[in-house]
Amino acid sequence: xxxxxxxxxxxxxxxxxxxxxxxxxxxxxxxxxxxxxxxxxxxxxxxxxxxxxxxxxxxxxxxxxxxxxxxxxxxxxxxxxxxxxxxxxxxxxxxxxxxxxxxxxxxx
Length: 108
Prior knowledge:
By secondary structure, the protein is an all-alpha fold. The protein is about 85% helix and about 0% strand.
């Protein structure tokens, strides 16, 4: 599940790059030259923004993978509980049938 989430992130980033190139007239090929022409504080800020964006993608993927594992654990627990309920229901039906047999076989 989290792999599809990462693919969705990269598809979104690609769509943003294509939109920026087509609609706004930005040339994605000139980004390294543009980045190199920035003053040092702006390069640091831009690099920090990119690093934080990648950290956000990684953290969200990590969190989704943890949630996926927890969901699998919960499904296993619920499956075991359901099996226990089915067994208890069968035992209850057997007990009800036994009581009904005792009632019907009363010598009165």
